Structures are given as C-alpha cells and as structure tokens.
Amino acid sequence: MNLQDxxxxxxxxxxxxxNKKYNDxxxxxxxxxxxxxxxxxDILIKADWNYKEEDEFISDKLVNNMKRNGQIENIHVRKLxxxxxxxxxxxxxxxxxxx
Length: 99
What we know:
The chain is an alpha+beta fold. The chain is 34% helix and 16% strand.
C-alpha cells in the first residue's frame, strides 16, 4: 500500500458532522478530542532514538495485558517530513500491538 492510501485511512474520531457518534460531545471537550486520530499501523515508524531497552519479560507482560484489556494508553506520534508518523511515546505498545 502506498503512502497516500495509508494517509487516507487516518480517521479523525471527532469530525463533527462526519461521525454522528461524536456529534453530541460538548464543544469544550471537542477541542480535546480533535487531537485524537486512528492511524493505520503501517504509517507508524518507531523512534530510533528510544532509550528504553528491550526486555522480553516486560514485553510478554505488556502483550498479555493488551490481549486481556485492549489498548488503554494512547500512542503519541508526530508527523515526519516523509508523510509517515514517528512514535514518540508508545514504541513498546506498537510492538505489542503487532503480536
């Protein structure tokens, strides 16, 4: 899949008028939710500057927790000049999501 196709799959979870599920959110909350988006996994790139080391025991615990409870904490990203998005917080969750 090319980059444009991946970008087209980004979902703004609070696009008033576009997603009726979120139309009843008060405007003050809408400002907060406007920053939340759902990204296709293939457009996300792990930060190569991440200082945390890989730990198999912790990774297994994270995978099992996500299988039990789903993803609870958000992954934070920033757009790169390439059009992809770098994961600035959540590299291990991104790995666990690929399990």
